[in-house]
Design a protein that fits this description.
Number of strands: 17
CATH topology of the largest domain: pyruvate-formate lyase- activating enzyme
Number of domains: 2
Bound molecules: cobalamin, iron/sulfur cluster
Oligomer: single chain
Structural class: alpha/beta
Radius of gyration: 23 Å
CATH class of the largest domain: Alpha Beta
Largest sheet: 7 strands, mixed
CATH superfamily of the largest domain: tm_1862 like domain
Shape: globular
């Protein structure tokens, strides 16, 4: 295969966080992991890859294009969430004007959900639908060697008078269970190429870390069924434990980064797995501040002990609502009652880690009383950080279809207001848009928890310095207090998930 010069670009998201101070914006940028993942196999094939993270430096369209074209690329690949679609289109227009020969490939959540509309409303040549590790190198091969793209799984294209959409396609990183193409094997592909990024420039202010942090992803997919989420009810695939531990070791020892946020949709989807991973981190002497997102119905004391011992310093459960009907409508599952959530949050509060509870309002038909119940519940639960989002029916979520039926959204609309905070992209609730925004402000004021990233002072409370966890006094004390306590008989199990994990583990041993 001939060598290609490729630029991978994330458009600027400055407008998404316009309400934050410049300093807070600058310090809460995160590495676009998806670009790192698709860069790695390209490098292995000998292509040259340059990253332009216009979001990190808040480049204007002109600046982004200047950086993107600086290495005279054959191809520019652009990642795109829904609100960034308009910005991405402007960048593409300017590239096509300045360098018409450059081939554009789009990927990411938004275009994976709406590939056809993307071809209709942008000047992109290709859309990679879903995971790009396998399809993108094949597209590069077609472009460089003038091949026919028709056989590539998971693409749509309008390229050189050829157009088409492959019938077999992949969903984004969350594979639908009835996917028509086999899900990619996560262990086959290299870890993200962090070295291509200005990896020391990514901080996570919300976790009070003034030192760099990076993201990692150990599994893809989620067994949950939340109506507003693109990952709902998807095939869960795990990377092998050793593979994840190697990556963590490289982050700590190779790159000298102390903070990692594991972006798995639910870190706790399988208990045995969490215990193995945690034990591995401790046994290898990896000392990192680790952040995870979890579901309350998947945790018990044993899991929490193991996570804490392994360096987990930030946990983020999705509580979502304090109203029983809304909890049900969201699809949280039979075990997520208010009582149960209260119990589990109290369990999490036994540990010296930072707890960030998140909530969402604006479900279809949700009333002001129901929203107020959520706000009261958030106050009762309390947390180091509380985040309230305003629901957006993203095109990859189950709610998109409902919003479409009501005529409130369509595939060709302006998506720049599809944001979680301070904006109502599409109001499906029973409350006026103005009132929703007022309730959102009120929620932060009333709960009194440091608002998630809302201003610099709020963020700096609840600090927890970097500590060697095994030696931590707090941990020793916790261990001492709990060691003789009978274990909670918590037989949490998503049977199908546990079976799937066993199968993947056995497959690894067989290979
Ligand atoms: C970390 C994260 C953030 C971080 C960092 C975002 C970033 N720059 O990466 C922060 C906190 C800043 C953030 C902000 C927002 N986020 Co966010 N975020 C995530 C999260 C949890 C992980 C992202 C990730 O690393 N995924 C792992 C990688 C491997 O997946 P990936 O990026 O999709 O990449 C794969 C494929 O899509 C494809 N691909 C991606 N790009 C490209 C490009 C090319 C050329 C090709 C060929 C292929 C390709 O190949 C990759 C490898 O398989 C996801 C949920 C999730 N599980 O993905 C939500 C998610 C991406 N976020 C979401 C949203 C809505 C937002 C916000 C709009 C929220 C807001 N504030 O209003 C903003 C938008 C900011 C932005 N820059 O777009 C939605 C997007 C839904 C949608 N339809 O767009 C998601 C999916 C969550 C959800 N389920 O609702 N987010
Ligand atoms: S919101 Fe969280 S728990 Fe619910 S489906 Fe999405 S990733 Fe899973």
């Amino acid at each position: 295969m001939s060598r290609a010069r490729i630029t991978l670009l994330q458009p600027s998201d400055g407008f998404v966080y316009a309400w934050k101070s410049e300093e807070a914006r600058r310090k809460s940028k995160r590495m676009p992991l998806g670009l790192g993942y698709i860069a790695a196999p390209l490098l292995d094939l000998g292509h040259s890859v340059k990253i332009v993270d216009a979001a990190l430096y808040e480049y204007s369209v002109e600046e982004a294009v200047e950086h993107a074209l600086a290495n005279d690329p054959h191809i520019v690949g652009i990642t795109c969430t829904t609100p960034l679609y308009g910005e991405a289109c402007k960048i593409i227009d300017l590239i096509k004007k300045k360098a018409p020969g450059v081939v554009i490939v789009m990927g990411g959540p938004h275009v994976s959900a709406l590939p056809r509309a993307t071809l209709e409303t942008s000047k992109t040549d290709f859309v990679c639908i879903g995971e790009g590790e396998e399809s993108f190198p094949q597209v590069v091969d077609c472009v460089i060697n003038g091949k026919d793209p028709a056989g590539i799984i998971g693409i749509a294209y309008n390229w050189k008078e050829q157009s088409g959409e492959t019938t077999q396609y992949r969903h984004r990183i969350a594979q639908s269970k009835d996917t028509t193409a086999p899900a990619i094997d996560l262990n086959k592909y290299p870890v993200p190429s962090r070295e291509l990024f200005d990896y020391n420039e990514y901080y996570d202010f919300s976790r009070d870390r003034r030192s760099p942090q990076t993201n990692a992803m150990f599994s893809r997919g989620c067994p949950g069924k939340c109506a507003f989420c693109g990952a709902a009810d998807t095939l869960v695939r795990w990377r092998h434990v050793d593979n994840c531990l190697d990556e963590l070791e490289h982050i700590e020892k190779g790159l000298g980064i102390e903070n990692v946020f594991v972006m798995d949709d639910t870190y706790t989807s399988n208990k045995k797995r969490v215990l193995e991973l945690s034990r591995g981190i401790v046994d290898r002497g990896i000392k990192l501040n680790i952040g995870v997102q979890l579901r309350l119905d998947q945790i018990d004391e044993e899991i929490c002990d193991a996570m804490f011992e392994s360096g987990v310093s930030h946990v983020g459960p999705g509580i979502e609502s304090g109203n029983a009907d809304i909890i049900k409508a969201i699809g949280k599952g039979p075990r997520e009652s208010k009582e149960h959530m209260l119990d589990k949050v109290r369990l999490l509060q036994n540990y010296d880690w930072k707890l960030r509870n998140s909530y969402v309002f604006g479900m279809p038909g949700e009333t002001e009383e129901q929203i107020m119940e959520t706000i009261e519940f958030a106050k009762e639960l309390s947390a180091d950080e509380t985040a309230f989002s305003i629901l957006v029916p993203y095109p990859d979520s189950p709610l998109w279809a409902i919003a479409k039926e009501t005529g409130k959204v369509d595939d060709h609309m302006d998506f720049s207001r599809f944001l979680y905070y301070k904006t109502v992209g599409c109001n499906l609730s029973a409350v006026s848009t103005e009132r929703l925004l007022e309730l959102h402000e009120f929620a932060y004021e009333y709960v009194g928890s440091p608002a998630y990233n809302f201003d610099d002072d709020a963020i700096s409370s609840g600090n927890r310095p970097h500590i060697p966890y095994l030696a931590s006094e707090a941990f020793k004390k916790h261990r001492e207090e709990t060691k003789n306590k009978p274990r909670e008989k918590e037989a949490y199990s998503y049977d199908a998930i546990d079976v799937a994990y066993e199968k993947q583990t056995q497959d690894k041993q067989a290979n």
